Amino acid sequence: MTAYTYAIGDITINMDHFDLEEARNNHTGMPDKEASEKAAAYLRTCMENLDSAGGIVACSVKNMPAGIGEPVFEKLDANLAKAIMSIGAVKAFEIGDGTAVSMTKGSINNDCFCIKNGKVSKTTNHAGGILGGISDGSEILLKAYFKPTPSIFQEQKTVNRSGEEIAIQIKGRHDPVIVPRAVVVVEAMTAITILDMLLQNMTARLDSIQNFYRN
After folding, report:
1. What is residue 94's three-state secondary structure?
2. Measuring CA to CA, which of 23, 84, 114, 186 is 20 to 30 A from 91?
3. pLDDT of the residue at 214
């Protein structure tokens, strides 16, 4: 399981340059050195303008067994969505191609099945490893969209307890972006949800229950 910064502002990583070691050794958490440098410059501009930036955290889960989740009430993608959306500042969640599927065609979006190394596999993974609420055995891909840090140093308008319209300007130390700090949180929430679903799946078959209590 691996999470990383996918985008900061409108600066997105190039997956052809993916280098997880790079993500662990820079301040942005981006696995793309060039994108990270651009994002760092962008954030410096935000700070100079007393502003902040939003971004995207992506998470990949490999070697996930097929059959985890249920088709309605305990859907794997629904439970992941609930967990990730419970993280502060997350405003949107995607599995696989996410919202992009609304602009494609079924003939393109459908993941075709094939036999690879003697096992059932898929030629593509637009679904992000989950079909009908159940894991299909391929890599699970999800994205969490974070809003810009709300605590900025620019003067902003609000209303006080007396109902008066006033202007405020905060002081102190505030990060210009939440995303890099949220990478480990997204990874942890995904791991907790996956583990919980794996434990629930142990009771899906009677022989699994018998083997567990027999040992």
Report:
1. strand
2. 23
3. 81
Please state, in angstroms and rounded to a whole number, the distance separating the CA atoms of residues 48 and 52: 10
Residue 171: both structure tokens together? 């002081």
Q: What is the pLDDT of residue 215?
A: 67
pLDDT at 207 (0 to 100):
83
pLDDT of residue 83: 98
Tokens standing for residue 141: 């891909």
Amino acid sitting at position 91: K
Q: For residue 150, what is the DSSP state?
A: S
Structural domain of 208: 2-214
Amino acid of residue 50: L
CB 11 within 8 A of CB 42: yes
Domain count within the chain: 1
- The pLDDT of residue 202: 85
- CATH code of the domain containing 72: 3.60.150.10
Distance of CA 45 to the CA centre of its chain: 26
Contacts of 7 (CB under 8 A, 6+ apart): 13, 55, 56
Amino acid at 49: N
Q: Are 75 and 204 in contact (CB under 8 A)?
A: no
